Amino acid sequence: MSAKLSCASLHKERPLHIVGDPTLLQRPLVALFCSVKCPGKLILETYELAKRFRDEGITVISGFHSPMEQECLRILLRATQPVVWCLARGLYRKTPTKPVDCRPAVDEGRLVMVTPFPDTVTHITRETAMQRNRVVAELARAVVVAHAAPGSKMEALCHDLLAGGKSIYTFDHPANAALMRAGARSVNLLDITEWAGPNT
User: Fold this and answer.
1) What is the CATH number of the domain that holds 134?
2) I need a labelling partner for 51 at 20 to 30 A (CA). Which of 45, 77, 84, 129 fits?
3) CA end-to-end span of the chain, whole Å?
4) Helix 126-139 vs helix 153-163: crossing angle, to nearest 10
5) What is the pTM for the complete model shown?
């Protein structure tokens, strides 16, 4: 069974509380974000990208909170490579079964759950979600944003990350034009082979 661990060395500012193998956080991680509202065409493209990540053995880290992110979690857990789920609250006492039944993946060591929050934080708030997203970005070597809605907290985070020199990739679509102008690159330029790892 997985155990709860504190790994201060894996995060710059605060210890991370983890269920699963903490060494998986040392893999080259690709962060995946998407705003709650996402244009239809981008939904289809994000599905295809998640399948590609799954098939190529990419280790994805995400909050898996928005509907599109949750669908990506379903896709990713159908393969054998690890997935990292960063929570915007303390660790769950029981392995979640919604929106996806995570029990098989946790039991098999394929899903790592990580959070910067202690167990006393039991509710997700806008503030904890923002902090969670920053942790996801810090742990990842590259960030993929399927869509950041104009004026959203996600768009603001993207601007901060770009200003700090973080590589952000997105779909070259009119809905993402502002993000592209801010410095995000087309997801087609992401060399997926650079992030592929063993499936076990």
Assistant:
1) 3.40.50.450
2) 129
3) 17
4) 30
5) 0.89
